[in-house]
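Tokens as discussed.
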């Protein structure tokens, strides 16, 4: 018998994997409701047609199965705006998982409105950040929507009970799902995130078999590779002079970065829900993009703008990590960041070698760099070095008064 206050129709974020397949059947049996599935192609590198077939097998009508290629939207509307800020959570993490959740939520809410659903559902557990990200985003977009989080509601508290539920309801179980998986993976076009099992002890080095995209440094090519990335108003638009779409740019950078061992991060981070967790993140394209964006900003962004941007970046990154993409404060910061990018246009040459990527040259028609002002040779009167004396005296006045006062009161 359906539970009290059961929703009539639910849109489920569905991967086609075991967990979300169990959730799909649980929604049907617990609530007796109609389930609509949404599967996002975020560039996770998996064939998504099996998700459609799995949903059909579980009784979902063909018209209720939504598989959407959101790769261009993901990079253009979420990844690129974030990279204009050079966003890093806790100084290291490029927010690959965090930035995908508001996009998924946006489509869940959109589909719910289109099909008349009164609820959406996700497969995030009650221990992680994703539950917060999904739900804050959904409620920001539709404050009346109901969000169902089965991991916080059901009585399936162990892997054994999950497998038993799957067998009872004839949900296919892959052979490798019956044993203990060595780690879990979340992937999209920006990164892969590996967590759990063999990675849970932070005192033990992550084994090589965990790597998904990045070649171990020891096995990377012995010859460096140079690439050039062109930017317009803070966004990458071309690689080696060839104009490409946002998703294609990130795909190409993933390929070249992964080959050279770029973008591997072993991080113990502070989750929003309060605990620490250890993850192995692989963000080859994003790591290159961050270095290149900082490279072009070096010559096109003035000190006041750049330093202000750097000062707000940790707050901006924390908002994304904690699930506040659709908050007014994130949008306010985004407006400031986007204003700073009006002249961030030009090209950066980078050198990739054995796990590193570094800017080796940069040029732009919007450059603020003046060689005649900084040259060690004759500057033809571009800068009068005597002017520095008064500048130093005025800036030293406060320090001199403090030192005089301190000597007097000792």
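Sequence:
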């Amino acid at each position: 018998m359906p539970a009290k206050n059961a929703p009539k129709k639910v849109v489920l974020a569905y991967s086609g994997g075991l967990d979300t397949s169990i959730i799909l059947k649980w929604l049907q049996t617990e609530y007796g409701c109609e389930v609509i599935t949404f599967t996002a192609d975020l560039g996770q590198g998996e064939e998504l047609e099996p998700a459609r077939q799995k949903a059909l097998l579980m009784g979902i009508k063909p018209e209720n199965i939504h598989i959407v290629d959101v790769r261009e939207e993901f990079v253009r509307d979420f990844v690129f705006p974030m990279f204009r800020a050079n966003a890093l959570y806790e100084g290291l993490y490029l927010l690959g998982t965090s930035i995908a959740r508001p996009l998924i939520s946006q489509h869940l809410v959109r589909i719910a409105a289109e099909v008349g659903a009164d609820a959406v559902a996700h497969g995030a557990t009650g221990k992680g950040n994703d539950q917060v990200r999904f739900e804050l985003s959904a409620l920001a977009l539709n404050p009346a929507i109901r969000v169902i989080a089965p991991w916080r509601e059901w009585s399936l508290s162990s892997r054994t009970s999950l497998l038993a539920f799957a067998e009872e309801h004839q949900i296919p179980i892959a052979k490798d799902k019956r044993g203990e998986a060595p780690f879990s993976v979340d992937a999209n076009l920006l990164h892969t995130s590996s967590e759990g099992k063999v990675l849970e002890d932070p005192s033990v080095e992550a084994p090589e078999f965990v790597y998904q995209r990045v070649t171990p440094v020891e096995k990377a090519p012995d010859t460096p590779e140079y690439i050039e990335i062109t930017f317009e108003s803070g966004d990458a638009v071309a690689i080696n002079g060839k104009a490409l779409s946002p998703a294609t740019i990130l795909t190409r950078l993933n390929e070249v970065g992964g080959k050279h061992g770029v973008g591997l991060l072993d991080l113990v981070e502070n989750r929003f829900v309060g605990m620490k967790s250890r993850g192995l993140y692989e963000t080859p394209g994003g790591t290159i993009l961050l270095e290149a964006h900082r490279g072009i900003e070096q010559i096109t962004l003035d000190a006041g703008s750049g330093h202000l941007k750097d000062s707000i970046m940790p707050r901006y990154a924390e908002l994304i990590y904690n699930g506040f993409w659709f908050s007014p404060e994130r949008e306010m910061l985004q407006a400031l960041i986007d204003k700073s990018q009006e002249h961030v246009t030009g090209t950066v040459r980078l050198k990739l070698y054995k796990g590193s990527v570094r800017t080796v040259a940069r040029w732009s028609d919007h450059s603020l760099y003046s060689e005649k002002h900084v040259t060690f040779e004759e500057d033809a009167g571009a800068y009068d070095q005597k002017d520095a004396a008064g500048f130093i005296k005025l800036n030293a006045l406060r320090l001199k008064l403090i030192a005089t006062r301190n000597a007097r009161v000792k």
